[in-house]
Amino acid sequence: MAAADELAFHEFEEASNLLAETPDAATTSGSNQLTPQGHVAVAVDSGGSYGAEEEAEESDRTALLQEEKQQPGFWTFGYYQSFFDVDTSQVLDRIRGSLLPRPGHNFVRHHLRNRPDLYGPFWICATLAFVLAVTGNLTLVLAQRRDPSIHYSPQFHKVTVAGITIYCYVWLVPLALWGFLRWRKGVRERVGPYTFLETVCVYGYSLFVFIPTVVLWLIPVPWLQWLLGVLALSLSAASLVFTLWPVVREDTSLVAAVLLLTVVLLHALLAVGCKFYFFQPLPLEHLAPPLQATSLPQDVLLPLTPGAKTT
To answer: Where is the composition biased (Polar residues) (predicted)?
Structure first.
């Protein structure tokens, strides 16, 4: 063992002398000999760095991990699949967050947590459109039972109208809002908007409160229908305002006020428009046709009016 240590010492001394004579040269001890057991051959370069091979392996491993973590392309199915990867507990938590808005409680920060989904907004919009069309037809059915003179025919086109209206609202309004906030970010550096999918997610979950409200609109009491509508609109609009306020508060007071007022007015326009279109008063064409004049027998004489002439 002592002989092996002495041999290693002589090899290290020879390498040191060689480096002193030619600093640019790199040597590896024991390059033409077998490395003794218990000793490790160490590469020494001109800069005095050790473990070049270990650093290369680490860099290769890092590059491999980065390739594995690369996101799929925008036009691939895998890119959108991640936005539907949510469980029931997450969806229910986000629904509760939209139903119970309160100041200082940011929906994006406390419920989305940088993981927006499209599963909840998609099915909320589909359910709302279906419920609007069905309850709109049920309103006419119930009215016909109360008044047999009312003529009812199924209005299947309301399903299409409701679907187009709801989905266009949930996609186009967030798109315009996101684009405006992106533009304001260039004007004022402190304004940082949410992503487009986060904005869509906020709008989609904010419409959930209208689903039970529309069902309750089947109660034929006008003042109760309007009361439920105002309550649902207040909760839904408050959820949007409390979520957008941390983004727009850094902007000027005028821009922030106009933007939030526009958001509330568009939300109110959607609610009022659905109320008047799907639960409108019965038009004249839904009433029973008037009685047709019938011909009287020839032997029946009608009373003469004053001034009438007989032949």
So the answer is: 25-36
Residue 185 has which token pair?
Answer: 């970010």
Closest CA to 240 of 212, 271, 219: 271
Are 116 and 84 in contact by the 8 Å Cβ rule? The answer is: no
Taking the C-alpha atoms of residue 289 and residue 2, their distance in angstroms, rounded to an integer, is 119
Residues 136-191: pLDDT tens digits?
A: 888 888 877 877 777 777 888 889 999 999 999 999 999 999 999 888 876 665 55
Look up the domain containing 204 and give its range: 88-279
| Long-range contacts from 84-93, C-beta under 8 angstroms, 24+ separation | 84/117, 84/118, 84/119, 85/117, 86/115, 86/117, 86/119, 86/120, 90/117, 91/117, 91/119, 91/120
Q: Which amino acid is at 164?
A: I
Q: What is the tally of structural domains in the chain?
A: 1
**Does the residue 82 lie in any domain?**
no
Helix, strand, or coil here: 28? strand
Q: What is the pLDDT of residue 62?
A: 59
First to last CA, the chain: 152
Per DSSP, 117 falls in state -
Residue 61 lies in a domain: no
pTM comes to 0.65
Q: Please answer whether residues 254 and 188 qualify as being in contact, where contact means their C-beta atoms are separated by less than 8 angstroms.
A: no
The answer as to whether 190 is a domain residue is yes
On the 0-12 / 13-18 / 19+ scale of CB atoms within 10 A, 265 is: exposed
259 in a domain, yes or no?
yes
Helices (H), 69-118: 77-81, 88-99, 107
Provide the residue type at 169 as one letter: Y
